[in-house]
């Protein structure tokens, strides 16, 4: 052999043999990590450390690809041992070393593995700030991994075959590296979706969904689990359209595999129904529900309570209340046997059946159901959730909230049956549970106070009606200052309080202030926008065309423009008419002749007043018992109500009939749905310092309420039996009224600005 060729072979051997030894050590470490035992993981760490010690020699090149791969292998082994400190240290070092290498598919693949392990390590340690940094830097990596996976699709997968890295050939055959790449993409995208919920990377997950949907239906089980985890992440982040497509694909995939995992198939159908109900497609959800054995799922599977909840919500959205009642009654015994009495699943099923009975007009049965529900909840000391699915569905229910809502529903059913005394007692009980030392459900409190004020005023109980109106106007002070409707309600409820006290001057001033605010609100809502430049250009061309046609036919004056004087006169009449409509009616104090805005001619008019409780509203619509409200109906109703109150105050305060409960007299946040959906029990409003800034007394309170309705009725009969004691109560009420009235010295002739509300402290 020539000397020159022998020298070249020795040089090549000196270069290749160390790399082969390093690759064999790293491959041994990868095989040891497959077992997962702590002893083998320590040996894998030792193999990687040996490679690092050899490559750190002066003859070694620190920029070779072996060094970051060895750090990645050591970090992965530490991660499997749950030693997150050394794992993050080696993974961060490997990440920085990979960034120094030139761009190549090999770099993208290993860098994706490194970033994925870094995100999981930081998440395991709860270091959210570092997780955010890593996921933010991974956006560029996502694009490279996407291109790598899309360019090297399964039918033309030749990246591994032409790779120069022996370790990649030995440890990542074509059937493995592709799934590893997909797994890394899903993990990084899911972490970014979880951290940046407000600004999620839509192009990235859209491309990933398209990539997963383009894969063959019969794939490896690893790819199935990757798609399932990503679909679950999209569902939790309210990406329902993409999640629904992936869940349907997974269901088709599961059916084609023909295995016996019945629970997995039912779980996928549960997720599909969840997406359909959230997207507002109840009829499609009903079709999917017909393919599920609900009783079998409720007994054997953990997602059974979730399916029962979705079935109730689906039937309610469609409007099939009869089937819904059969569903609740049919599964009540099964829920009682399967779950504990203090579990949320049987409790909400019982509560739901009572509300549906009330919706169907069967008030006597609804009263019995509500009593049963309240008795069960009163015996409960701690509310439980049977499984994770039930907790996901409704995690905001509290024991006090259920007691308050149950008492409120019972009171409404009693009022519909005509039992007013017991109805008032139950409303007072609901108010006690809605206002505790630890929390206050302000929405429920306002709704109950409105019902109590109406009932007390209807029955002639002036003292308690004054207390209810006083508490109401104080609660509307918690609203923001820019909420004009809250200012209107504050003035009207406070004016009603003064009207019942007999202080007509203060009541009339507050009513006029509410009327002025209502008119201002309606005028602002009726403002027209400025025309766009395109509309101005179109109007100019139209005028020029009309002028040309008029010049061509000067004798035809019927269709031409009207004279200037007549045009100005008509424009003044239109302005006067619009001002009258904005002020609520024909300009006088009577609001009965108010024109209906935004209503087509000949359309059926909705009744202005309906004796409806505030809770009987549904967010889903399509119920015959819930009147539909047009755009300006709320303002018109308040204009008519305030004008009627002004008339009563001007006549001398002789109240003929109290204003009935109406669906316009409820805020959107006070409308409790007739479903067992989660409801927030707090509001972001601060309690105002009433005693310091407004110069008023502390909040008034109702008289002490007995524990049972029997004791309440006996106390009421005792007052009626001993009429000479009534003077004591009247003196107490009179003293309360005199102390409550603020000494403003205002009269009707004074300007209304003196009664404007100071909300600068908010």
TrEMBL record:
Biased composition (Acidic residues): 545-559, 667-677
Residues covered by region (Disordered): 544-629, 656-699
SUPFAM superfamilies in the record: TPR-like (SSF48452)
Signal peptide extent: none
Positions with biased composition (Basic and acidic residues): 565-574, 607-618, 656-666
InterPro entries: TPR-like_helical_dom_sf (IPR011990), TPR_rpt (IPR019734)
SMART domains named in the record: TPR
Domain of life: Eukaryota
Protein name: Uncharacterized protein
